[in-house]
Amino acid sequence: MLDLHHQFFRYRKYIFFLLSFYVIGWGFTSYQPVFLGLILGTSISLFNLWLMVRKHKQFGKAMDEGRSVRSLGTASRMASAGFAVLISLEFPDELHLVSVVIGLMTMYFVIMIDYFVQLLRT
Question: Are the CB atoms for 34 and 21 separated by under 8 Å?
Fold first, then answer.
């Protein structure tokens, strides 16, 4: 479980780097809706990862104590992603829908890239 927390901190560092790049792109380019959609989607993606790590920690603690766990929070993560899409549908002039969806998938890309980087290191 300690390894999961190390991975989470590493992923968080990568996502903050990407978010800073997106903020610079939003501030200095004419593609503001695209970058704002990426910012929203990536932020929700980071929030979903934090929820998953937190639920995993609760799951491990419950298993050690012999208790059962109701859920790992799939519905709440799906609801937050749906909320991001609804926001982009409500404000189509300020947020680009496709970039919100790409931002929501950013965490999975970061996880896959980090896996291959860690595989090459070992």
Answer: no
Residues 6+ apart with CB under 8 A from 77: 48, 51, 52
- In the predicted structure, residue 120 carries a pLDDT above the cut 60: yes
**Domain spans of the chain, in order of start:** 2-64+72-121
Q: Are 28 and 54 in contact (CB under 8 A)?
A: no
Q: What is the pLDDT of residues 104-113, one digit of tens each?
A: 999 999 999 9
pTM for the model stands at 0.89
Q: Coil, strand, or helix at residue 41?
A: helix
CB atoms within 10 A of CB 12: 15
